[in-house]
């Protein structure tokens, strides 16, 4: 009996807990996961537009409505804001506060121009009688592009908040982390916009 | 792993060479990488707009194919040069999350378009007049 007990004791599995390489700074990973879930929202909206994008209900089609030169200017605004945010990040790594703030401000201006053009376009469409209630195509168009515009709006609010933070507290590690999160958010919005101008505008006008 | 005892040492040397701890957080760009990414995306944006606005090709299908293809390439360019994606960041977890999301996006898009296309095909044809009279 005793020997059996000893045997069981010997066969008991042993666990070696090795605390190996716990990744620090997981904020970036967490934020990346948020962006991926945001990506799913946009994927669903893109799928909706893919399904409804040709249901004009005898109303206007993309070729009648979309003004491609404005879309091209809009696209370049967002692209320029992406590169200027990149410059801000490079200045942040150099711990140059004034330059970082300058490039953040430039980014904000480009973002604001993008939003203004988009609102002008929406306003123009609604006044032409091509509002979101006109057809399934326009409903899905306004939902998709509007959601993207809403993201840019909140990105700009976030940007201004961070500019105030950096101006008040300087480039402390917390602010650097926040700026890196916003960097990912901002570049992610540009990635979504690539899908919007290719799939919604260019493919729409193509018919 | 045990058959390649030199591999980890190599990787360490690699990390030291680049001067900062890779694998912890997303890598940082350099001025050069940002400018490369920017010029690539300008080109990749200009071409599809030119294709559609200039009506370069007669075949709409071919143009559509090119527009979507260039869009996908531009998304990859942004991922690499602006979002600094690489297989090592965060111990590979960002890449895993990205692949998982891409699979879900693929299922969502392809599934929706496929199912709804079949529904449309099997619907009774409807004239615009009938549609106008719908509740």
Question: What keywords describe this structure?
Answer:
heterodimer, A: 207 residues, mainly alpha, 7 helices, 80% helix, flat, B: 135 residues, 68% helix, disordered N terminus
What portion of the residues of chain B fall into strands of 2 or more residues?
under 5%
- Cα Rg of chain B: 23 Å
The global form of chain A is: flat
Mean pLDDT figure of chain B: 79
Biggest sheet details of chain B: none
Mean pLDDT of chain A: 90
How helical, in percent, are the residues of chain A? over 70%
**Which structural class do the helices and strands of chain B define?**
mainly alpha
What is the succession of H and E elements of chain A?
Answer: HHHHHHH
SS content category of chain A: mainly alpha
Detailed description of the structure:
With 207 residues, chain A is mainly alpha-helical. Chain A is built from 7 helices and no strands. Chain A has helices at 2-11, 27-52, 62-65, 68-93, 97-127, 136-169, 173-206. In chain A, helix 5 packs antiparallel against helix 6. The N and C termini of chain A lie far apart (84 Å). Chain B has helices spanning 7-18, 31-53, 60-81, 93-122, 128-132. Helices cover 68% and strands 0% of the residues of chain B. In chain B, helix 2 (31-53) packs antiparallel against helix 3. The relative contact order of chain B is 0.09. Chain B starts with 6 loop residues before the first helix and ends with a helix. Chain B has 135 residues and is mainly α. The chains are: A mainly alpha (207), B mainly alpha (135). Chains A and B meet through helix 2, helix 4 and helix 7 of A and helix 2, helix 3, helix 4 and helix 5 of B.
